[in-house]
Amino acid sequence: MKKILFLVCAIFIACSASSQVKPGIEVLRDNDFAPLKGKRVGLITNPTGVDRNLKSTIDILNEAADVELVALYAPEHGVRGDIHAGDKVENAIDPATGVPVYSVFGKTRKPTPEMLKDVDVLVYDIQDNGCRSFTFISSMELAMEACAELGKEFMVLDRPNPIGGNIVEGNITEPDCISFVSQFEIPYLYGLTPGELARYINEEGILGEGKKVDLTVVPMDGWTRDMDYTETGMPWVLPSPHQPNPESALYYPTSGILGELYYMSTGIGYTMPFKLFADEYIDAEELAQRLNALELPGLRFRPIHIKPFYNVGPGNDFTGKNISGVEVYITDKNVAPLTLTQFYVMQELADMYPDKAVFKEGNADSKRFKMFDQVAGSKQIRELFSKKHKVSDIIEYWNKDAADFKSRSSKYYLYN
Fold first, then answer.
1. Adjacency order of strands within the sheet including 276-279
2. Of residues 204, 149, 188, the one with CA closest to residue 196
3. CA 292, CA 331: separation in Å to the nearest integer?
4. Residue 384: CB partners within 8 Å, gap ≥ 6?
5. Residue 280 in 3-state DSSP?
6. What span, in angstroms and rounded, lies between the C-alpha atoms of 139 and 156?
7. Contact status, residue 251 vs residue 275, Cβ threshold 8 Å
8. Contact (CB, 8 A) for 82 and 64
């Protein structure tokens, strides 16, 4: 009986320990919204902007005494999440609050002076996925630019980096690959929370030479850099349709760059988005054996045979077809080469099936190369890899900026 009681107590303590992280909105509320009192507030958010009871930041601020919520700004998917992925967001009125909603994912991606004329402070509260190619941090940077130019305050209600705060991978974005999926010069995995990234953007000249915004970050309570999202005790609200759980954030960087080519299935259209690599021609057992023989740290692969339920994108339609490949298992995120995983898969497939090599003419859709380059942040990755389809040809280039960025960005850390 004592052993059972001890085990129950241990489980309770462990669960309690993992339930202590408070997002910035809760910390702001605990402090009676002091930084916003008497101000006209604009809010950039989406369904991920919630407290631990799943109450929207929109409604929290709208109900707060002496806080006047005057405008909402809708990034991809809209403020209430009712816009499909990639669809343009239109200006509207939020039916729950009557507050006007301005689109920043359509013709306009940077708030205009007209959109901000009635605002004293623009607040940002969105859960990101820790990857440069996710568009929400691009929306944040453009909003900071607008506020800097107009003399408006900018506030970030901080949230976790779901991958953790210690993992930095990838070259920084190069000037000819700057786009909405790589808006500024940071690595693919940048290892910062939204608040820390805002501080980096503000102090490192990313807003323009000599340009800064009046920035406030409301930090989380209880988060540490070694935590991934599963350890926070916070509810996960999917930031996009194919990231249904916090585990998705860890797997997105393993396949998301390759996914831009619509070359093979990465699990979207099945029940494992970003967690597998499959096609009709693949010998699953051999591919798994080859990848495991590489002894990549923190990674294991198993053969998998699936039949996708629906198609995504203009490439191969695997709906209802039997396809085979490998499922990826991340056994230790801190040592796994997350972003290079997809390149190791491409390497082994090119060796197994030379005629199917991803960058051999006629295989991947060359019209998608521009998007691949923008997400990768450099044309060099594709051009170097396509010569022999070997990871050894890109690994030095891919990793060349990570250590320097980690050192430069560490001065903006808010958490240990």
1. 276-279, 323-330, 299-306
2. 204
3. 13
4. 393, 394, 397
5. coil
6. 12
7. yes
8. no
Measure the CA–CA gap between 298 and 33, rounded to whole angstroms.
43
What is the pLDDT averaged over residues 360-369? 90
Gyration radius of the chain's alpha carbons: 22
SS3 84: coil
- pTM beyond 0.90: the answer is yes
One-character DSSP codes across 183-238: -SS--SB----HHHHHHHHHHTTTT-TT---EEEEE--BS--TT--GGGS-PPP--
Unique residue bearing structure tokens 């693949």: 282
Question: 208 is written with which tokens?
Answer: 């323009």
Q: From CA 48, how far away is CA 45, in angstroms rounded?
A: 7
Q: CB of 215 within 8 A of CB of 154?
A: yes
Instruction: Assess contact for 251 and 274: CB atoms under 8 A.
Output: yes
**Distance separating alpha carbons of residues 21 and 279, to the nearest angstrom:** 41
Q: What are the residues facing 306 on neighbouring strands?
A: 323
- In 10-91 the beta strands, taken as DSSP E runs, fall at 40-45, 68-74
Q: What is the C-alpha to C-alpha distance for residues 94 and 104, in angstroms, rounded to an integer?
A: 15
Q: At residue 407, what is the residue type? A: S
pLDDT band at 11 (very low <50, low <70, confident <90, very high): very low
Dist. CA 76–CA 79, nearest whole Å: 8
Largest CA distance in the chain: 68
Residue with more model confidence, 407 or 361: 407
3-state secondary structure of 11: helix
Handedness of CA 56, 20, 416, 398 (dihedral sign): negative
What is the residue-averaged pLDDT of the chain? 93
What type of residue is 254?
T
Quote the CA–CA distance of 362 and 373 in Å, as a whole number. 18
Instruction: Assess contact for 18 and 231: CB atoms under 8 A.
Output: yes
**Distance, CA of 141 to CA of 149 (rounded, Å):** 12
- Could you tell me the CA-to-CA distances from 36 to 25, 29, 137, 154 in Å, in that order? 12, 10, 23, 11
Could you tell me the sign of the dihedral formed by the alpha carbons of 94, 220, 85, 140, in that order? positive
pLDDT level of residue 86 (50, 70, 90 thresholds): low
The yes-or-no verdict on residue 191 having pLDDT over 70 is yes
